[in-house]
């Protein structure tokens, strides 16, 4: 069934915009919901930013600056959307983004989730098209070390949405950055099942509705 907008459920602790609009961003990038439940306050004297733990092997190349959201972000955020098959109790949010900007939108969502108090090991990022640059880099050192990081579950993990070995995490972010519609139609329900508290889908709303509708 197509995704149907519902009333927004934005957590008050989500940080507001911190950058100016980026040129060329076609679709708005609303703030992701940090998920249900209070988050513990950082200890006094701890740095405000959420540093991610190091990864085995050589350091991945820097992602570069995260594209700033457009000015519309300060207005009404994109409401969460409902879809059949979402995990019970999990929140679901759609972040509109073009295919070529889906990974950037997912990266920004991850940064905001970390800033809101989510632990890195609670977040899984999936792509329906090309691998995320981090996944591509880590896979270049072999699948053994790559999947060892998945099993350790102490950092954000990036994987192909069709990978069967990936397990669920409290937060799943899906970048609909390409791939066949059939594969995307299978990947989205699978991501819903893996999300324990929150599922964020970054992509073209029309395409997402179309593939889900065709798969209904």
How would you describe this structure in keywords?
7 strands, 216 residues, single chain, two-stranded antiparallel sheet, 5 helices, five-stranded parallel sheet
3D structure, described in words:
The protein has 216 residues and is of the alpha/beta class. 26% of the residues lie in helices and 16% in strands. The protein contains 5 helices and 7 strands; from the N terminus they run E-E-E-H-E-H-H-E-E-H-E-H. Strands 3-7-6-4-5 form a 5-stranded parallel sheet, with helices on both faces. A two-stranded antiparallel ribbon has the order 1-2.
Quick take:
Helices cover 26% and strands 16% of the residues. The chain has 216 residues and is of the alpha/beta class. Strand 6, helix 4 and strand 7 form a beta-alpha-beta unit.
Please indicate the percent range of residues in DSSP E strands (runs of 2 or more): 15-25%
Overall strand count: 7
Q: Runs with pLDDT <50, length 5+?
A: 4-29, 36-42, 46-87
H-E string: EEEHEHHEEHEH
Largest pleated sheet: 5 strands, parallel
Structure classification: alpha/beta
| Envelope shape | globular
Return the average pLDDT rounded to an integer: 73
> Radius of gyration, rounded?
16 Å
- Main-sheet strand order equals 3-7-6-4-5
Binned, the helix content reads 25-40%
Distance between the termini: 6 Å
**Number of helical segments?**
5
């Amino acid at each position: 069934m197509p995704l149907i907008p519902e009333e927004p459920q934005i957590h008050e602790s989500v940080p507001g915009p911190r950058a100016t609009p980026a040129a060329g961003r076609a679709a708005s990038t609303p703030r992701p919901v940090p998920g249900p439940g209070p988050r513990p306050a950082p200890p006094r004297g701890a740095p405000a930013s959420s540093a991610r733990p190091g990864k085995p092997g050589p350091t991945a190349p820097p992602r570069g600056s995260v594209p700033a959201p457009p000015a519309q972000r300060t207005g009404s955020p994109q409401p969460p959307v409902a879809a059949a098959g979402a995990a019970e109790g999990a929140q679901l949010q759609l972040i509109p983004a073009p295919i070529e900007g889906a990974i950037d939108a997912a990266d920004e969502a991850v940064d905001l989730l970390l800033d809101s108090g989510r632990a890195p090991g609670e977040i899984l990022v999936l792509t329906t098209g090309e691998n995320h640059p981090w996944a591509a880099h880590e896979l270049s050192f072999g699948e053994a070390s790559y999947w060892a990081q998945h099993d350790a579950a102490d950092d954000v993990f990036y994987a192909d949405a069709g990978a069967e070995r990936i397990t669920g995490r409290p937060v799943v972010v899906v970048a609909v950055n390409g791939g066949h519609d059939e594969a995307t139609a299978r990947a989205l329900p699978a991501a819903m099942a893996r999300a324990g508290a929150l599922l964020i889908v970054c992509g073209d709303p029309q395409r997402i509705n179309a593939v889900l509708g065709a798969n209904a």
